[in-house]
C-alpha cells in the first residue's frame, strides 16, 4: 500500500495541501499500474518457489484472481487433488499466523 501511495505522489496524482490529501486530476484519468518496486517484490517471492509451484501459478494466472483448481489441473494435465493441496500449502505458508481467540 505504501508503494502505491508513493507512486501516486511521485506521479503528481495526489498531493498534500493544507494538511489534507487531495486528488490532482480527475479520477477517471487515473490508471494506476503496478509500481516497479511491487513488481520486483512479487518476482522475488515467485523466485523462492519451486518449479512446480511456479508452473501452477503461471497456469492459474491465466484464469485471473479467482480460479478453479479443477480447470487449472486439467490444463496442466495434473491431478486436481494434488493441485488443491499445493494451493492450500502456498496459502498456509504465506499467511501470517493469527492469534488464537481473536
Topology, please?
Blueprint: H1 2-10, E1 14-17, E2 20-23, H2 36-47, H3 51-63, H4 69-76, H5 80-93
How would you explain this protein's 3D organization?
The chain has 102 residues and is mainly alpha-helical. The protein folds into two domains: 1-44, no CATH class; 49-93. Helices cover 55% and strands 8% of the residues. The protein contains five helices and two strands. The protein has helices at 2-10, 36-47, 51-63, 69-76, 80-93; strands at 14-17, 20-23. The chain has a two-stranded antiparallel sheet with strand order 1-2. A hairpin with a 2-residue loop joins strand 1 (14-17) and strand 2. Helix 3 (51-63) crosses helix 4 and helix 4 packs across helix 5. The protein is elongated, with a radius of gyration of 19 Å.
Largest sheet: 2 strands, antiparallel
Determine the structural class based on helices, strands and strand pairing: mainly alpha
Give the assembly state of these chains: single chain
Total helical segments: 5
Q: Whole-number radius of gyration?
A: 19 Å
Major sheet strand order: 1-2
Amino acid at each position: 500500500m505504501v508503494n502505491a501511495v508513493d507512486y501516486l505522489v511521485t506521479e503528481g496524482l495526489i498531493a498534500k495541501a493544507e494538511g489534507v490529501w487531495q486528488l490532482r486530476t480527475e479520477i477517471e484519468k487515473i490508471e494506476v499500474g503496478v509500481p516497479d518496486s511491487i513488481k520486483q517484490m512479487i518476482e522475488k517471492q515467485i523466485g523462492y518457489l519451486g518449479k512446480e509451484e511456479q508452473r501452477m501459478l503461471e497456469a492459474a494466472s491465466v484464469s485471473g484472481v479467482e480460479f478453479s483448481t479443477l480447470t487449472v489441473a486439467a490444463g496442466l494435465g495434473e491431478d486436481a487433488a494434488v493441485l488443491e493441496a499445493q494451493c492450500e500449502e502456498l496459502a498456509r505458508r504465506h499467511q501470517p499466523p493469527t492469534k488464537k481467540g481473536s
